[in-house]
Amino acid sequence: MTSRHTRTITAAACATALGLTLAACGSDEESSASGGGKGTITLGYIPSWTDGLSTAYLLEDQLEKLGYDVEMQTLTEAAPLYTALSEGDVDMYPSAWPEVTHKSYMDQYGDDIEDLGAYYDNAVLTLAVPEYSKIRSIEDLPDHADELDGKIIGIEPGAGLTKATKEQVIPQYGLDGDFELITSSTAGMLGELKKAARGEDEIVVTLWRPFWANSEFSMRDLEDPKGALGDKEGLHFLGTKGFAEEFPEAAELIEGIALDDEQYGSLEDKVVNEFGEGKEAEAVDSWIEENADAFDTLLTEDE
Predict the structure, then answer these.
(1) Percent of the chain scoring above 90 in pLDDT
(2) Rounded distance, CA 300 to CA 303, Å?
(3) For residue 146, what are the CA distances in angstroms to 143, 178, 179, 201, 234?
(4) Contact in structure between 224 and 129 (CB atoms under 8 Å)
(5) Residue ranges of the domains in the chain?
(6) Per-residue b or e along 59-96, where b marks 16 or more CB atoms closer than 10 Å to that residue's CB
(7) What mean pLDDT, rounded, does the chain reach?
(8) Rounded CA Rg of the chain
(9) Which pTM value belongs to this model?
(10) From 24's CA, which of 17, 80, 184, 247 has a CA 20 to 30 Å away?
(11) Is-contact 67 22, C-beta < 8 A?
C-alpha cells in the first residue's frame, strides 16, 4: 500500500485486486499547481459517468479556493474505485450511488468509507427508449423482441445498473429467453443509441437520471410496474475513512453542497456539452457565475 499522501494507483494493482484490466487506472492524474499547502485531495471518478465528472470539477474549483491541492484519478469501473476509496488510494468519490445502485459495494467496503452527505436526492435507474418508440413499459418488451433484435444495450459490466438489469429486471419480467443484455461501456451504449436514433430504429438501453443523454436523445423512461430498478436515491460524496478528520475544512464545504434538478442539470450540461473536454474549469466558472447562491458553502472568486 502506498502512503495516503502519494495517492497513486497502478493498473496492475487494480487488476490484481479485482481481476479487471483497467487501462485508465492510474494513467490520467492531473496535479493542481494552485493549492495553498493544506494538503492534497485525490478525486476518483469514472469519466463516462458524467455526474461524477461534473461534480469532480466543481469540487476541484471549490477545494482549490480553500487552499488544497487537487488530483484527478480516472478509473473505468465502479469496483476498483470503491476498493481504492476504501484503501485510501483515492480520498473521494464525488458522485456515488450508495443507497441502492452501489449498495453491494457499500456492504463490502462501507466500514472503510465515510459518507460526506448527499448533494442530489432525485436519482433513478431506468430502461429507456427514444420518444419516437412505440414501447411504453418494460412489460411490453417481449412483444417487440424482433424489432429490438433481442438486445438490451447496456453499459459497463461492473455498473450497479448492469447488476440490477441482470438480476432484477430480466428475471422479474421474464425476459431471459427473448433478450440478451449487451454490455460494453457508457460510450458504447451512447454510440448505439445515436445510430438507432438517426434512423428512428427501435432500441432499448439501460439509462439513468440525471444524465444529459436523456434530453440530448429525447428519451422516455419505460414504466417499471414491478419496481425492479428500485426507488429514487441520493447521489453522495464518499470519502475514505478519516477524511473529515484529515481535511476538516473540505468536509465542511462538501457537506453543504445540495443541488436541485435545474442546478445539477445546468452544471452537467456546461461541463459535458457547452464547454466540453479540456474546458471543464471554464465550465465550472461559468456555472458559478450563474448560480452564485446554489448552496450555502459555495465559494466564488470574490471570497
Answers:
(1) 85
(2) 6
(3) 8, 9, 10, 12, 36
(4) no
(5) 11-121+232-290, 123-221
(6) bbbbbbbbebbbbbbbbbbbbbbbbbbbbbbbbbbbbb
(7) 89
(8) 19
(9) 0.81
(10) 247
(11) no
- Which residues lie below 8 Å from residue 186, measured CB to CB, with a gap of 6+? 48, 49, 155, 156
User: Please, which residues bridge with residue 44 across strands?
Assistant: 73
End-to-end CA distance of the chain: 38
For 1-15, 176-190, 242-256, which range has the lowest pLDDT when averaged over its residues? 1-15
Q: Which CATH number is correct for 11-121+232-290, 3.50.50.60, 3.30.450.20, 3.40.190.10, 3.40.50.9100? A: 3.40.190.10
Amino acid type, 115:
D
Q: Residue 190: which residues within 8 A CB-CB, separation 6 or more?
A: 213
The rounded distance, in Å, linking the Cα atoms of 240 and 233 is 21
Q: Grid coordinates standing for 142?
A: 417481449
Q: What is the mean pLDDT of residues 253-278?
A: 95
Residue type (1 letter), 203: I
Return the axis-axis angle of helices 50-66 and 248-255, rounded to nearest 10°.
130
Fold of the 123-221 domain: D-Maltodextrin-Binding Protein; domain 2 (3.40.190)
Does the fold of domain 123-221 match that of domain 11-121+232-290?
yes
Residue pair 46/90 in contact (Cβ under 8 Å)? The answer is no
Instruction: Return the amino acid letter for 248.
Output: P
Query: Which residues contact residue 215 at a Cβ distance below 8 angstroms, ignoring those fewer than 6 apart?
Result: none
Strands 113-130 and 180-182 turn out to be: unpaired
Q: Residues, the chain, total?
A: 303
| Whole-Å CA distances, 77 to 24, 92, 152, 158, 301 | 10, 15, 20, 6, 34
- With 0-12 / 13-18 / 19 or more C-beta atoms within 10 angstroms meaning exposed / middle / buried, residue 145 is middle
Q: Which amino acid is at 9?
A: I
Question: What percent of the chain has pLDDT above 70?
Answer: 87
